[in-house]
Design a protein that fits this description.
It comes from Streptomyces sviceus (strain ATCC 29083 / DSM 924 / JCM 4929 / NBRC 13980 / NCIMB 11184 / NRRL 5439 / UC 5370). By secondary structure, the protein is an alpha+beta fold. It is 16% helix and 43% strand.
Length: 293
């Protein structure tokens, strides 16, 4: 499978960055290098994105564990050890062989991130991913958090499900400095990171969010996926309390003087205290634009 499909090429050509995309795309491979394997084994958090085989809806889900719960077990293979929450929207996908999945490991301590996309294979203790694409991203728009601690007695609350944002969830979204965006295409799935100063995601109504698409690496993997298939999943984290907000719906890009993505909410899952991690306060990226600008 090539790095880019028709959707990404369409966006690259529209923006005029095909040459830059070809240059950046040379860094994408299937192999998991030693430095990438070492990075993965240090992470307590992995975000996975896929389409639920039973509903077709796309979700982004957080997976956590002691460092080493994600590790390379072959030149093109990563193993992930569970458990994850039984009510997670992607629980069925994690147990379905061959499901296309995208993952991102993001380390706020070093402002490094790595993406690995491939296909799932369930294992006795979790699942493995046979990699199709492995690559790193620059630290742009990634907030630095110096440290984290594990809150051993934290237990996830019952998920609150809905079809649009509550007022409290809208506040959660507008206060966020980071979210994760899962998207899919005919041959795979992907998860990307979006970051900015609080307020960079706008709640336009209980059923619609939008955000400015900041300049990035010119690959346009996410916007290319959305051009080919509008299904998408968003994940917001509270880096202090561990609460999560997962959204699924459709997204489309508006091209103009300001490139903007609009997301229509179809289903919501809010889980209080879902993750046992408590991170230190953020130092915002110097690359973040003023959200009011």
């Amino acid at each position: 499978m090539g790095v880019y499909h028709a959707g990404s090429r369409t966006v690259q050509d529209r923006v005029g960055v095909r040459e830059q995309a070809d240059h950046v795309g040379r860094s994408v491979g299937r192999g998991i290098r030693d430095v990438a394997a070492a990075f993965l084994e240090l992470q307590p958090l992995l975000v996975a994105g896929a389409a639920d085989p039973s509903t077709g809806r796309v979700w982004a889900s957080p997976l956590t564990g002691a460092p080493g719960f994600v590790r390379a077990t072959g030149p093109h293979r990563v193993s992930v050890t569970g458990p994850w929450l039984p009510a997670d929207p992607l629980a069925t996908a994690f147990a379905t062989p061959g499901t296309p999945v995208g993952t991102i490991a993001l380390d706020p301590r070093t402002r490094r991130r790595m993406r690995l996309n491939g296909r799932l294979g369930p294992t006795a203790r979790g699942f493995a991913i046979e990699a199709d694409q492995v690559f790193a991203n620059c630290p742009k728009y990634l907030q630095k958090r110096e440290s984290y601690e594990v809150v051993a007695d934290r237990r996830g609350g019952d998920p609150l499900r809905g079809t649009e944002l509550t007022p409290g969830q809208a506040e959660f979204v507008t206060a966020a400095d980071t979210f994760f965006l899962a998207s899919v295409h005919q041959d795979g799935a992907d998860v990307s990171h979006r970051g900015g100063n609080p307020g960079f995601v706008r709640v336009d109504s209980p059923g619609e969010l939008s955000w400015r698409d900041y300049p990035g690496n010119s690959m346009f993997l996410t916007l290319g996926n959305l051009a080919a298939d509008p299904r998408a999943g968003l994940l917001f984290l509270d880096w202090t309390t561990g609460s999560t907000l997962q959204l699924t719906g459709e997204a489309h890009t508006e091209f103009g003087p300001e490139r903007r993505v609009r997301f229509t909410v179809r289903e919501t899952v809010e889980t209080p205290s879902a993750l046992p991690l408590r991170w230190s306060a953020p130092e915002y990226s110097p690359a973040n634009p003023d959200p009011a600008g």
